[in-house]
Design goal:
Blueprint: E1 32-36, E2 40-43, H1 44-58, E3 63-66, E4 72-75, E5 90-97, E6 102-107, H2 111-123, E7 129-133, H3 136-141
Antiparallel strand pairs: 1-6, 1-7, 2-5, 3-6, 4-5
Helix pairs in contact: 1-2
Length: 145
């Protein structure tokens, strides 16, 4: 599973899920992307399941970029344990996703295959998503799209 090699603090605050994505909201590397439509936490297992779904559908053809990384730790107390005793141990890692964030990108395959692969990935994720295509005008003008 994906998780940071090291972090400054083991346990982090829960934070707030408001506002749209400020960075990573455009297709930068590939031709097609999977864009998040709602805010949520996506676990490392969900990211890995979606990545496997895409690579299996493309059969090692084309290229896949994972644009999110689970860098937030989530703690969880064991079942049937009384409250108190401090904050629980780290259970798993999540990526904080806001609306507009590009989660996956695909290139080097026909459009139909790319859209189908991203749809398979979307079924593995807990949020509504949509498939987007790279902006051709920005590419021609030389802007980072």
């Amino acid at each position: 599973m994906l998780q940071p090699k090291r972090s400054k603090y083991r346990k982090v605050f829960r934070g707030r899920r408001k506002g749209a994505a400020t960075t990573g909201s455009t297709v930068s590397f590939g031709e097609f992307g999977l864009k998040a439509m709602e805010a949520d936490w996506i676990t490392a297992r969900q990211i890995e399941a979606a990545r496997i779904a895409v690579t299996r559908h493309l059969r090692r053809g084309g290229q896949v970029w994972v644009r999110v990384f689970p860098d937030k730790s989530v703690s969880k107390k064991p079942a049937e344990v009384r409250m108190g005793g401090g904050k629980a141990a780290v259970d798993h890692w999540v990526a904080v996703v806001r609306p507009g964030k590009i989660l996956f990108e695909v290139a080097g395959v026909p459009a139909a295959d790319a859209v189908r692969a991203l749809k398979l990935a979307a079924h593995k994720l807990p949020i509504p998503t949509k498939t987007v295509q790279r902006d051709r005008i920005a590419v021609m003008l030389g802007h980072s799209a």
